[in-house]
Write a structure and sequence with these properties.
Shape: globular
Distance between the termini: 40 Å
Number of helices: 1
Order of helices and strands: EEEHEEEEEEEEE
Largest sheet: 12 strands, mixed
Structural class: mainly beta
Number of strands: 12
Strand content: over 45%
């Protein structure tokens, strides 16, 4: 019924190192099977179905030295997620039959993540809404990767392969386009790609 916040048929997170003095927990390859994640925005005041969790773990006196986490890699099998914006009457569904990533570096304190290699099999992204519009991002080739920086975050993806991907967008209030590609009612299936040195930002996508 899309009312379960988080579910895992199986979750394994082996602890490689726990440095108590430095407040750092290093994990091996995290495996999540039959994962389900359902998020929803309840009203226009930025109230979400997980807001109560953030309030429960928040503190009036934040720690000067928060805990840090490092992950060697992730393996996801049969994962699905859904985000519903109830006031805007829009929703987004995404998932994948298989996703794997080898993390070269992960430093939450420095806001830096470097993914050496990633693989996605049968990923999908489906969006539908009544008042939102689909945004297209300019694409530019480059010979180097500097990652993207959003609010201080730096993320790099060195290589990635995507197989049998699907994408769908439906603007429910828009009539069909009389000619050309109808980006307001767009559906792509069985798409594959191989990417290296990829840079993703809110404003653009560039890479090879």
């Amino acid at each position: 019924q899309d009312d379960t916040l988080l579910y895992a048929g199986s979750l394994r997170a082996p602890v490689v190192l726990m440095a108590l003095t430095d407040k750092v927990i290093s994990l091996g390859v995290v495996k999540w099977e039959e994962g389900r994640l359902y998020l929803s925005k309840l009203d226009t005041t930025k109230q979400y179905n997980f807001t109560f969790i953030l309030k429960a773990f928040s503190s009036a006196k934040p720690s000067a030295h928060p805990w840090g986490f490092r992950v060697k890699g992730v393996r996801l099998t049969d994962v699905k997620g859904c985000y519903k914006n109830i006031p805007a009457r829009s929703q987004m569904r995404l998932g994948a039959a298989h996703f794997a990533a080898n993390v070269e570096e992960m430093d939450l304190k420095e806001k830096r993540i470097i993914i050496e290699e990633a693989e996605a099999i049968r990923p999908y992204l489906l969006m539908a809404g009544g008042s939102t519009t689909a945004a297209t991002a300019p694409v530019r080739k480059t010979s180097s990767s500097k990652g993207f920086n959003r609010s201080g975050w730096q993320i790099e993806l060195h290589s990635c392969s995507i197989e049998q991907a699907a994408y769908g967008y439906e603007r429910l209030t828009a009539p069909p386009a009389p000619k050309g590609i109808d980006f307001r009612h767009l559906h792509i299936t069985n798409a594959s790609a191989r990417v290296r040195k990829c840079v993703l930002t809110v404003d653009m996508v560039k890479g090879e």
